Amino acid sequence: MCAALLAAGASAPAWAGRSGVVADDTVRALEPALAGEFALQAGKLDEAAKAYLDAARASNDAVLAERATRIALLAKDDRRAGESLALWRKLGGDGLAQSAADATLSLRRGDERAARRQLNAMLESGQEGAWQQVIGVLSVGARDPEQAARMLGRLLDDDRLPDQLQAWLAFGGLAQKLDQDALSQRIVDEVVRRFPGEPRVALLRASQLRESGKTDEARGVLAALDPALLLVPEFRMAVAAEYDALGDFQAASATLARGPQDDQTYALRASLLARAEDKTALTALYEELRRGGSKPDPARRLLLGRIAEFLKRHQEALDWYRGVPGGEPRWPAKLRAANVLHELDRDAEAYQALHDLQADAAAPEDARRDAYILEADLHNRDKDGDAELDAFARGLAAFPDDPDILYARALGWERRDDIARAEADFRKILVADPDSTAALNALGYTLADRTTRYQEALELIDRARAAEPDNAAIIDSYGWVLYRIGRKQEALTELRRAFSLQKDPEIASHVGEVLWVLGRKDEARRYFEEARKLDPDNRALKRALEKTGE
């Protein structure tokens, strides 16, 4: 956009005499548009929203008006969002997107009556993608999960949801994410009434029961499914995923075992059985696959090596990996072989294998790069910090400023509490790729969590939010920095929003810590327990428990 404006500005003198008004509009828009872009790159969302609105007014450009609206909503600048939206509507554009922005603004202002009317109008329009936009408004645009739940309930009261199973399943999933058991049950009952005999309804019912803590009932619903349905690959995968969510890994694997098999289903079954620590079933699967392992199928031999690793039959795993004859699986097999050698305490061979791969001109660049990252990881496991740093240094000498190596090294510096060096590596990534949301978020979170440079952290995270406003990890970082600067209630809202989007142990730990500080200790304990179920060794959970004395 800036390049186009610059090109227009450069040509203005040649035709200004004939089209002076157009030229003047372009020139007047150039400065605020550039200012908006620079402000956005600096993470100053309020300044960016103002500048983009100025540019849109100067140029009468609907795209700039839309950008100003979205940035103002992110900045929680309701007044400017309203002005930008009014201009955007005047200039034309995507009416559905404008309605979604209008409803979001109404929710932000607390005008739920207007939001209800606007969301209903979107649903009644029948436009493609309308109900998905409504879900987006409720998921991300609402001030808090309670408001989103109220609005969803009112939409059900108004009976405006389209008569499409996929839409009802999606709204049911939203109710579950919002931890609204009664609302979820209401949707399930309505889906059963509207779509009798539809097997996917049973999956929604099982999911709703699981979210309500009625795991035995959920298993009963899944067990009652017609076995013939499991011969449909997509449905079989969905049922297995529900068993997985229930923590019943054996049942998930048994579900996947029905019907035709391929390397993907075999790999998923092996992973599930490994998580269940069911060595008997995993061994049976291994022996089943092993009977065909004499054929030189690279993918199958790679899979057999992975299963042998799960079973801790490391020598067999090494033989399978070394037996991969060629093709794309050859390179991950070499990496896995080095890892197995390390597990066998044959460290010198492991490191030599990685050095050979690093020097192999025939290997693809990503395999050679990953060999440096794996070598550093193995040295970290050996608690040899100097060798770990040397591996990173050699990797960066071979692949200067490679973002994956820099990112891995930055995480290593953070583990050592060397925040200055971690920051330096994250910033090197951003020099090459200023829009890297992963680096923006990681650096912003690190500064928020490990320093008192909260304003800097907020600006970095805001840059990431502007690029990916629906990203749960970024919303979590945003909530965490709000907590660190003392805006605890706002922080809780954002952190709970993040957890509704992604059930993650670190996010759950953050929600629990903020609830604890707010004096809501019973609720905090519930989130700590959620985090324990997801990952009892999570670093954020351990820190939160240490702070709270739990």
Characterise the protein shown here.
This protein is an all-alpha fold. Among the domains are: 1-105, Serine Threonine Protein Phosphatase 5, Tetratricopeptide repeat, CATH 1.25.40; 163-260, Alpha Horseshoe (Serine Threonine Protein Phosphatase 5, Tetratricopeptide repeat), CATH 1.25.40; 277-343. Helix content is 77%, strand content 0%. The chain has helices spanning 2-15, 20-41, 45-59, 62-74, 78-91, 95-109, 112-125, 130-141, 145-158, 165-177, 181-194, 199-211, 215-223, 233-245, 249-256, 263-275, 279-290, 298-310, 314-322, 330-343, 347-358, 365-381, 385-398, 403-415, 419-432, 437-450, 454-467, 472-484, 488-501, 505-517, 521-534, 539-548.
Short key terms for the protein model shown above:
Serine Threonine Protein Phosphatase 5, Tetratricopeptide repeat; globular; 550 residues
Summarize the structure.
The protein is 77% helix and 0% strand.
The CATH topology label of the domain at 1-105 is: Serine Threonine Protein Phosphatase 5, Tetratricopeptide repeat
Number of beta-strand segments: 0
Give the percentage of residues in beta strands.
under 5%
Q: Which value, in Å, is the CA radius of gyration?
A: 27 Å
Architecture of the domain at 1-105, according to CATH?
A: Alpha Horseshoe
Topology record:
Layout: H1 2-15, H2 20-41, H3 45-59, H4 62-74, H5 78-91, H6 95-109, H7 112-125, H8 130-141, H9 145-158, H10 165-177, H11 181-194, H12 199-211, H13 215-223, H14 233-245, H15 249-256, H16 263-275, H17 279-290, H18 298-310, H19 314-322, H20 330-343, H21 347-358, H22 365-381, H23 385-398, H24 403-415, H25 419-432, H26 437-450, H27 454-467, H28 472-484, H29 488-501, H30 505-517, H31 521-534, H32 539-548
Keywords: Repeat, Signal, TPR repeat
Protein name: Tetratricopeptide repeat protein
Organism: Lysobacter yangpyeongensis
